[in-house]
Amino acid sequence: MSELIKTLEAAQQMPGATSKCPEQTSVGKLLLNAWSAELALRIKPVCSDRDFLNASLNWSFPQAYFAVLFSARAVLAIDGIRIANPEVIESLLSRWATCGKYGPIYTQQGNPFADLIQHRLTGGFKPQRLSGPEAAALHIKLTEKIHAVGIIHETYILNRMGSEAYRNLVDSLPDYLKNGFVGARATFLLSDD
Q: What is the pTM of this model?
């Protein structure tokens, strides 16, 4: 993680960054945005209607993009780095992946977030028409990727924030997050503590 800290410190020199020390509430708000986007991705109903599944892909990629974007912003904010510029954050994500912060699979893929970045503006991209099983498989793969990135980002935040503050953050969430995937992820992360 020391390499991540060096990258984060370098990010403070980028345009749009400030070195204000964040309050944990701003980290919490960014995580809430990330978790809300991830929840929207996760609650897509399983449906055999091909048209519905293809239409839902138009929503899935932007939701995945914003889940990653906001959790990356929370990683930066926990160290007092406030960057809202998506292009700067995308560049950092790419650099972190290249440096191995997301594990060997993502390092070998080049920029694993490239498929998400193209969906920053929802109007410019229309996914190809897929069969029901193909669309469902793509959705599952996308959800798994966001989950893996969430674990990595939230592990860093937990380590910087401390167990008690992280528990308090999760405990303050609405029940549907606290008792859902966020609570399950927090239990997993805190069990390694």
A: 0.78
Identify the CA nearest to 19 among candidates 10, 31, 32, 6.
Answer: 10
Cα–Cα separations (whole angstroms), residue 5 to 67, 84, 101, 188: 22, 18, 11, 24
Residue 176 falls within a domain, yes or no? no
Residue type present at position 126: K
Q: Which domain holds residue 128?
A: 2-146
Q: Helices 132-161 and 181-191 sit at what angle, rounded to 10 degrees?
A: 50
Q: Virtual CA dihedral for 181, 182, 184, 188, nearest 10 degrees?
A: 130
| Structural domains of the chain, count | 1
pLDDT digits (tens, 9 = 90+) for 18-51: 443 445 778 999 999 999 999 988 887 555 666 7
Query: Which residue's structure tokens are 């809202």?
Result: 84
Helices (H) and strands (E) in the chain, counts: 10, 0
Domain assignment present for residue 22? The answer is yes
